[in-house]
Amino acid sequence: MSGGAQLSVTDHRRSTRHPVDLSIIGEHRRLGDIMLDLINVSTTGFMTRGQTELGRGERVTIRLPHIGRIEAFLVWNDTERAGFQFERIVRADDFVKMIKALQPNPRLRPAS
Q1: What residues does 45 pair with on adjacent strands?
Q2: What is the CATH number of the domain that holds 82?
Q3: Which site from 13, 26, 38, 87 is most exposed, i.e. has the minimal number of CB atoms within 10 Å?
Q4: Coil, helix or strand for 14?
């Protein structure tokens, strides 16, 4: 078996990240349901806080407001954070709706 996932989405690490504070349940093939604490999100992925038992390339499925179910692959992991890349880029209009739902404070919302 080759090392890691073969991602179809190119690496967009320069995508704008929006800070969030969201605890969600991720679905993992081996571990079942796992808790993830999202600290930022972009149209191409998200970062979590805390240790994870996942290895690079492993995937989880999460559910986000206005996006629905979406699969993500672990790209990097250290002792305190982990970075995931979505299996597809989130449409801009759906992303804006999600950010508005996650950030009820109007000052934190991106300009529309």
Answers
A1: 85
A2: 2.40.10.220
A3: 13
A4: coil
